[in-house]
């Protein structure tokens, strides 16, 4: 097969500050997915993008090329609207765990396709895998069936969903290009758009424990992702939330699950509860249910019921004891 472009020429174009053409972007994403563009070449291009950036049309085309590398899901047959949430990650960010069952308990289906740890941040799937028996990998048919029955699913994106992103996601983690805003935005939004959710709430972290250290960076990332979502017909909103201190009182897979269950039981740290409810209200409003108060579903146990059903549906035991850290260190705030 004769290739349309040469990888080195594409790398040099971005290295020298030029914008990439639509055909160049389409080719390089497809060729990387096929293995024609090597990891070291894509690493060089990712670094050039980090240093020289992309304009909005470039980012939109890169995102579209990532989506086109795989399949698209369709939740239009469900009896309830869908809403998803994505966080850019931080220390102790366990919000997805109580949030997905809470929103489902309020009548909105939550197809939460989550990831693993990236950089210094913990991954939602890594945390849930501390529950004995729980499995992250589901077929599309299993995802649809669980959404229809339980109302919420937290799982890994299937191999057919934006496979280009799966390769690039892992590469960015080991090449110092995690913070590239065009690559963050296209990575998140390619999966969310291909996933087929009807609405999306973005939790963009800013502060010392986030990838975005400065508020202007966070605003740029949020605006870029909202524009990508809206252009694709997905109702998208973003919140900028503080990550200058860890969320909650724990950082670690199993102990963050335990803390999340405490929130679902009506307790838990105040900051985790506050952010969970804020994001739930945004998701419900985006899905057309602004009249529902998610605090009621926490108080009356409906959210906990959905959590237990969700865990069981994916092979986990919600009553199983979770691992405890062998060593703990308590850090107290100054009086």
Automatic annotation (TrEMBL):
Keywords on this record?
Glycosyltransferase, Transferase
Q: Which SUPFAM superfamilies match?
A: Nucleoside phosphorylase/phosphoribosyltransferase catalytic domain, Nucleoside phosphorylase/phosphoribosyltransferase N-terminal domain
GO-annotated cellular components: cytosol
- For this UniProt entry, which segments traverse the membrane? none
Top-rank taxon of the source lineage equals Bacteria
Tell whether Signal is among the UniProt keywords: no
Residues of the region (Disordered) are: 314-335
- Write down a Pfam family by its short name: Glycos_transf_3
Q: Quote the InterPro entries the UniProt record gives.
A: Glycosyl_Trfase_fam3, Glycosyl_Trfase_fam3_N_dom, Glycosyl_Trfase_fam3_N_dom_sf, Nuc_phospho_transferase, Pyrmidine_PPas_bac/euk, Pyrmidine_PPase_CS, Thymidine/pyrmidine_PPase
Biased segments, Basic and acidic residues type: 324-335
A GO molecular function term, named singly, is: 1,4-alpha-oligoglucan phosphorylase activity
E.C. designation(s): 2.4.2.4
Record domain Glycosyl transferase family: where: 81-290
Q: Does the keyword Transferase apply?
A: yes
What region holds the Glycosyl transferase family 3 N-terminal domain? 9-70
One biological process GO term for this chain?
pyrimidine nucleoside metabolic process
Could you say which protein family the record assigns here? Belongs to the thymidine/pyrimidine-nucleoside phosphorylase family.
Q: How does it assemble?
A: Homodimer.
Q: What is this protein called?
A: Thymidine phosphorylase
Q: List the source organism.
A: Aeromicrobium marinum DSM 15272
This chain is encoded by the gene named deoA
